Amino acid sequence: MLETAHGSIETPVFMPVGTAGTVKGVHARELRDDIHAQIILGNTYHLYLRPGIDIIHESGGLHKFSGWQHPILTDSGGYQVFSLAANRKLTEDGAIFKSHIDGSKHIFTPENVVEIQRKIGADIIMAFDECTPFPCEYEAARKSMLLTHQWLERGWKHFCNTEPLYGYVQSFFPIIQGSVYKNLRQQSADAISSYDANGYAIGGLSVGEPNEVMYEMIETVNEVLPSGKPRYLMGVGTPANILEAVALGVDMFDCVMPTRNGRNGMLFTMNGTINIKNKKWENDFSCIDEDGDVFVDKDYSKAYLHHLIISNEILGAQIASIHNLGFYIKLMRTIREKIHTGEFLSWKNRVVNTIMKRR
Predict the structure, then answer these.
(1) Per-residue model confidence (pLDDT) at position 90
(2) What distance in Å separates the CA atoms of residue 220 and residue 216, rounded to the nearest whole number?
(3) Distance between CA atoms of residues 6 and 72, nearest Å
(4) What separation in angstroms does the CA of 142 have from each of 146, 184, 336, 358?
């Protein structure tokens, strides 16, 4: 259980991604009342550029601006700066980058990223880090990890020396880096464990490395991290990834996959994935998912959703997104139940292969 000013969070938990202050195509009411999301994620980089931090601050923070009154975690923007490799320059001071919107030049530092997230008003704010690509040479990964640690020290100091802006407590999570090198991951986990944070994040994975390597890195760091505090695996992933990572001790997840894949016609179910664009669903009038428990699963048929998706109707993207998010949230709820009853590992081993097969 993770306590925040905007509510308690039962873990393991999946966080729908609301990059620019919105989970694409999904109302806050649907997230709350139908999907039953506990917490959502926003992104510092995107919110900083648009609508701009002053607008969010003037509104009273992202909770008020977006109409979502439950916990919010903000990614520091490190991954987005990493993805702008051709338009950014890293220094010890921070990252200088050009906006993908208008080409204007900006700088993120460990300190101003804390300030930006203070103004956003997230319940959980992330340290500014550098995310390495895959593959990555050992020496480049080592230098990147050391830079992340230097930035963490500065960011933590600034966090501790500043106050929240909206009258409620915020938490700060450090991030482990080290690419796919076991000794670097151990060093990084040991370094961030020295900070008495409310939780710790595992970054720099799910960037192209094989799943087996990702699982090895997760196991490596979780042997070092303090017990009893949440462990957040950033940007992961498929339902199978989540099941395996929970077995390795991970508590928190986020990924754009439910909404992005949904907009492109891919539906997740416990019996495997469905490409609703396929002609086989054209005259299948059964409900979208008889095992689902969000309203779209029973209200609409596969044939209707097939029609909407191939016609590029906005409603199709909305239905598929709501279904997939509902599936992910229900999966996490089932995981928690199975952990409570002591059945998780045996259940996980039964379903992990089925859940990703193509139907």
Answers:
(1) 86
(2) 6
(3) 8
(4) 6, 7, 36, 39
Rounded CA-CA distance 236/192 in Å is 21
Residue 88: closest CA among 96, 78, 99: 96
Give the mean model confidence (pLDDT) for residues 184-203: 98
Domains and CATH numbers, the chain: 2-255 (3.20.20.105), 262-356 (no CATH)
CA 69 – CA 71 distance, rounded (Å)? 7
pLDDT band at 89 (very low <50, low <70, confident <90, very high): confident
Catalytic annotation, pick one of 34, 75, 123, 289: 75
Please give the Cα distance from 153 to 147 (Å, whole number): 10
Active site residue 34: no
Q: Hey, what's the torsion of the CAs at 341, 343, 345, 349, to 10 degrees?
A: -150
Average pLDDT for 228-242: 96
User: Given 129, 251, 254, 289, which residue is catalytic?
Assistant: 254
In the residue annotation, 75 being an active-site residue is answered as: yes
What integer pLDDT is reported at residue 81 of this predicted model?
74
Rounded to the nearest angstrom, the gap between the alpha carbon of residue 159 and the centroid of all alpha carbons in its chain is 22
Distance, CA of 67 to CA of 245 (rounded, Å): 32
Query: How far is the C-alpha of 143 from the C-alpha of 157, rounded, in Å?
Result: 21
Tell me the pLDDT tens digit for each residue of 269-325.
Answer: 999 999 999 999 999 999 999 999 999 999 999 999 999 999 999 999 999 999 999
pTM for the predicted model, two decimal places: 0.96
The mean per-residue pLDDT over the stretch 59-64 comes to 98
Mean of all residue pLDDT scores within the chain:
96
Length of the chain: 359
